[in-house]
Automatic annotation (TrEMBL):
Name of the protein in question: Allantoate amidohydrolase
Family: Belongs to the peptidase M20 family.
Assembly and interaction partners: Homodimer.
NCBIfam families: hydantase, PRK09290.2-5
Top-level taxon of the source organism: Bacteria
Keyword presence, Transmembrane helix: no
Keyword Hydrolase carried by entry: yes
Alphabetical UniProt keywords: Hydrolase, Manganese, Metal-binding
Amino acid sequence: MTDYGKLAQLVMDRCDELGKISQSDDCLDRRYLTKEHKQANGLVGGWMQEAGMQTWQDEAGNLWGRWQADDPDAPRFIMGSHLDTVPNGGQYDGMLGVITPVTLIAAMQAAGVRLPFHLDVVGFGDEEGTRFSSTLLGSRALTGQWPASWADVKDSDGISLSQALKDFGSDFASIPNAAIATDNLLGYLELHIEQGPVLEDLDLPVGVVSAIAGAKRFEFNITGMAGHAGTVPMNLRQDALCASSEMILAVERVAQNHGIVATVGRIQNRPNGVNVISGNTGFSLDIRSEFDDKRDVALDEILLKLDAIAARRNVGIERKATHAANAVHCDAKLQSVLRNAIEVQNIPVHTLFSGAGHDAMAIADICPVAMLFMRCEKGISHHPAEAIDTPDVAVTLAVLNHTLQNLA
């Protein structure tokens, strides 16, 4: 019988070891196509080989391991997540979704389990987009969605993506070779920490993801009239900051009324003097929902309210769309298998949507996808305080084991 507790401790130990590979001595910071990326691929690739898997690295720098089926012509099923981090990040975001299935495969091999499909585990080189400011580079390579214009995208040191690939031992012109065939592809399953507080609040170790939220982002610029704080009467002011404050509260109210999430995370104010009325304020808007139509209805209402506030306060308003991504809904059949695997562990099944983006969003273009969330402490992520419990990992291993043996 599989000792999931012992396996879970091995997963934790491996996360600790991988979390030490960083380009910074002060924090965990591992970015795409760096020597630390190559080092991480080497470490995880070694664990894959210990598990009896065939390993390779594709043209985009993604690490692969295959547990081969007896039939060489069998279909393939993919599990995976990313091995890059944000600056000052945690050691479970992404990494858990690669290390856990690799560790499980070794135990399944030892138990004499065979699957009727090739099980591939992929460690994506870039999900966070930290180095080149464009997310999901690793997973997008699998779907053939690397536009030629990306060759000239540069990092903060002025190094182009094309040059970085060359330095890594690859070639931008070879990226199309990383795209995978879809005719025998059964699906994709990604394990990830929740990055939110829902499962912890419900006292549940795992949950099934129904969808990954679609997001839209905007930058707003509010133009008023700067003036002396002591000499301009209140009723004659065109205060850009006060107008923006009312707009931000309107965003919050509309989001609450429509059951979606909307965030103003960045504000820039000018001239930003203690005794000067604000003449110009800029702020961001990030709006998300698992249902695109629901998000867009709320967005239309927000835009109308912001225009009305601007008109009433006699300030100018300009907006620029900076990002748009549609929601991705997880495959119903794969969700069902996951729910059944959780029920077998005598754990209540909870379904939730992901407000954060994941590699599964890109992979959904080529095959059915599913995600399993695991509880993380206080919902903290993208932070050194990111934490998980070993017993939750043990439950997750049991759920994944049951899922893989009941996919066919």
